[in-house]
Specification:
alpha/beta; Rossmann fold; 5 domains; six-stranded parallel β-sheet; 29 helices; 23 strands; 16% strand; globular; binds adenosine-5'-triphosphate; UvrD-like_ATP-bd; hydrolase activity; 3'-5' DNA helicase activity
Length: 742
């Protein structure tokens, strides 16, 4: 009984004190939010708290509680119910021992400056996650600090009441983790700040200005870690980056919905959460009717022939060779424009600028800019020059006419002739000067008119269909390959793999608008990207601050995407590479089955280690055809076992739709999930394996009838994805175990 623990009364008092203080702050801040905030900031201005090197700004960001008080009353209320989840007993050199309580936000006493709660993202909190007890170090910015960690304690607090607490050391089983993992999924990812593991903590806090790439097993927490890293990033780098400059790319809308609620819980608002396809269309302004990205996959799955042609167009379009081809196309366009500078800039017959000089600016000095941005700059250069020279053109012309008129006045004895010439010069001047003035106004636009702006979509479409141009641009392709490429594009169709090309061309030719120029990217399921997609983002956004997480074993789109990480590491030479081998999602029993499939793959990935959590052994239920009654029985027993979310995972979308219809006809509350569906738990969710990627459910029924899983690259991965979605219970339903490669 926790109540008999000698420190129980002290802990209860501490919790009460914390909540009281929070209520106090809340009340005060409500009374006079603004002035309280200013007062707090002022009073803290000269304080050194926690880390002696912390700046005032840092103290303010540490003291997020006040910010929260200002902006979000609701989340503050939530924090109040569970102000902290852990405590460290810590001592810095030559200082007194202290107890630091770690929570989701920080709170500092505004008179004593005592840290009542320390934010989980603050430097010192790192020692909580870092594993070891004893002498430890942690970093504040680039400086290392040391200290002694005596003990770590974890708390379970519910509705503001202390339920239990426990000291943690290396030998204690991490009960909080066990408890967190045995929980029920409500088809939403949750925050895990209380139970972040050492290997995960390393990734969350890995060098923020450097790219990282994580190969992580199914259920190892990749998505969760990416989201926590965003939270950590904004906490630590909030002074330098706005949330709007951060973007998380997810595979589909269903997935965005799935992760959507965790970010606010982690104190992250306003970051861009989207899919690659949506982002590219927004950033380029090019709207396309895209082929369903899963259509090709489905064709591959349903077809009997799983071997791809050697000249596989989606794969080519994802390669760096394709980027090279487009570079040649861009160069061609650039040279065509450069040739237009062969003409000089004139106002009437006065040369204002040499074309060769402008060409040099275009090709060299401004070459760091996108092509059309260079033209805009050159236009400005000409404008300035015209403005500068127009005056002198006019004054020298006026002077010349003055001179000519003077000469005519003095040069002719015959008054008629004199009048004739003087009048002629005056008339000429009076006609010419206004004409020149008009010309001055239009010189720049007349000169620039020759540089027509391209429509990227049209340019790319021409590239896809122009035989002669392709021969010039892709001489390394055989005649047959060139023909295949052209023929594949006779009908106008747009596929996901074309988006990287469009984005790249747009970035190089027009440039990405500031509002879409993300500076920090987080990409989940990165194994489904092509190298060119990543390269296009990196060069178009001019940043390499990418957090990339993925799993090659789940690379079901490998006919067009990545199959290894080496090339990614070459593309991001500054990247740190991490691997995660432990799965937190699945029970040992389920992972054993999934590992059998993993072992059959070519990727040479080590088997996944489940964290120690036992459950029911997966059941195989034999059935020749899809039998809704049988599924109903399984579903009902799973519900009886207390599972919230249950999914029936099929091989294809067609099967999913067909099975759902049969289930509904038998009064089973089923719902087929598509990319745009909303996730709920009240029904039996039916979905194809490729859509289930990234999601998780309490219990899963994997079914395959007419199209069994074959021992092919794609099928092994699809099956592996399906099996690893289950947290607690798994059923496999089909004609034979062989249909599931078992
Ligand atoms: N340290 C942890 N404490 C508690 N739960 C955790 C921890 N790490 C991961 N989990 C849980 O494990 C599950 C899997 O996490 P997540 O979905 O992030 O994994 P993933 O690597 O992205 O999986 P997949 O590759 O299959 O999509 C989630 O329910 C997550 O909450």
């Amino acid at each position: 009984m926790i109540t008999s623990h000698p420190e129980y009364p002290k802990e209860v008092e501490r919790l009460a004190y914390t909540i009281r203080y929070m209520e106090d702050i809340l009340r005060k801040s409500q009374e006079d939010l603004q002035s309280a905030n200013i007062k707090i900031q002022e009073s803290m201005a000269n304080v050194e708290y926690l880390d002696s090197s912390d700046s005032f700004i840092n103290i303010l960001t540490n003291s997020r509680f006040f910010e929260l008080a200002r902006t979000q009353k609701e989340s503050l209320e939530a924090v109040k119910q569970k102000p902290y989840f852990a405590r460290i007993h810590f001592q810095r050199p030559n200082e007194a021992e202290e107890f630091l309580y770690i929570g989701k936000t920080s709170l500092i006493h505004n008179e004593t400056f005592e840290p009542i709660i320390v934010d989980w993202r603050s430097p010192v909190a790192n020692v909580y996650y870092d594993g070891r007890l004893g002498d430890v170090t942690y970093r504040v910015r680039e400086e290392e600090y040391s200290g002694h960690l005596f003990a770590k304690r974890q708390y379970k607090i519910e509705d503001g009441n202390l339920v239990s607490f426990q000291d943690v050391d290396l030998t204690t089983n991490d009960d909080l983790l066990q408890e967190a993992l045995s929980g029920k999924a409500d088809v939403r990812l949750t925050e895990i700040v209380a139970t972040i593991q050492q290997e995960q903590n390393e990734i969350i806090r890995a060098h923020l200005r450097q790219p990282i790439l994580v190969q992580g097993a199914a259920g190892s927490g990749k998505t969760t870690i990416a989201l926590h890293r965003i939270s950590y990033f904004l906490y630590t780098m909030g002074e330098h980056f706005n949330p709007e400059q951060l973007m998380i790319l997810a595979p589909n809308k269903l997935f965005i919905d799935y992760i959507g609620e965790v970010l606010p819980e982690l104190g992250v608002e306003r970051i861009c959460q989207t899919t690659f396809a949506e982002y590219v269309q927004n950033a380029t302004g090019i709207k396309l009717k895209l082929q369903d990205p899963n259509e090709q996959l489905e064709q591959l799955i349903e077809g009997n022939d799983h071997t791809l042609p050697s000249f596989n167009i989606p794969k080519i379009k994802g390669s760096l060779q394709y980027k090279e081809l487009l570079d040649r196309l861009i160069k061609m366009h650039e040279m065509k424009l450069a040739a237009l500078f062969d003409e000089d800039v004139y106002i009437e017959k006065y040369k204002i600028m040499r074309g060769s000089h402008l060409k040099k600016l275009f090709l060299f000095e401004f070459s760091y800019m996108p092509i059309e941005k260079r033209l805009e700059r050159i236009k400005k250069v000409i404008q300035t020059e015209v403005k500068r020279k127009a005056k002198s053109v006019l004054s020298s012309l006026n002077a010349r006419y003055e001179e000519m008129i003077g000469k005519a006045l003095n040069g002719f004895r015959d008054p008629d002739k004199r009048r004739e010439y003087v009048t002629k010069f005056i008339d000429e001047r009076d006609a010419r000067i206004p004409q020149i003035k008009t010309e001055i106004k239009s010189t720049v636009s007349t000169y620039m008119r020759r540089f027509e702006k391209v429509k990227i979509k049209t340019m790319y479409r021409t590239f896809l269909t122009d035989r002669l141009a392709l021969r010039e641009l892709a001489p390394e392709w055989s005649f047959e390959e060139q023909e295949r490429f052209i023929q594949a594009h006779t009908k106008e169709k747009w596929a996901l793999e074309d988006l990287a090309a469009l984005f790249y061309l747009h970035a190089q030719i027009k440039g990405i608008k500031e509002e879409w120029k993300m500076r920090v990217l987080f990409i989940d399921e990165v194994q489904d990207y092509s190298l060119f997609q990543l390269a296009a983002l990196k060069s178009g956004l001019e940043t390499d601050m990418f957090t990339l997480v993925g799993d090659l074993a789940q690379g079901i789109h490998s006919y067009r995407s990545l199959t290894e990480w080496d090339s990614v590491l070459k593309l991001f030479p500054r990247a740190n590479f991490f691997t995660l081998q432990k799965s937190y999602r699945t029970t040992i029993e389920i992972m054993e089955v999934a590992n059998q499939i993993l072992a059959k793959m070519n990727e040479n990935l080590p088997l996944v280690e489940p964290v120690v959590r036992h459950g029911k052994s997966p059941s195989f239920v034999q059935s020749e055809t899809f039998n809704p009654k049988q599924i109903k029985e399984i579903y009902e027993s799973l519900k009886q076992n207390g599972h919230h979310s249950v999914a029936l995972i099929c091989k294809t979308s067609n099967e999913a739709a067909f099975f759902t219809e049969m289930l509904l006809n038998h009064d089973i509350d089923a719902e087929v999930l598509t990319e745009t569906s909303e996730l709920g738990t009240s029904k039996l969710l039916v979905l194809p394996s490729h859509l289930a990627k990234g999601l998780e459910f309490d219990a899963v029924i994997v079914a395959a009838f007419s199209i069994p899983y074959a021992d092919t690259v794609i099928d092994r991965k699809l099956l592996y994805v399906a099996l690893t979605r289950a947290m607690h219970e798994l059923y496999i339903v089909g004609p034979t175990k062989k249909a599931f490669l078992l």
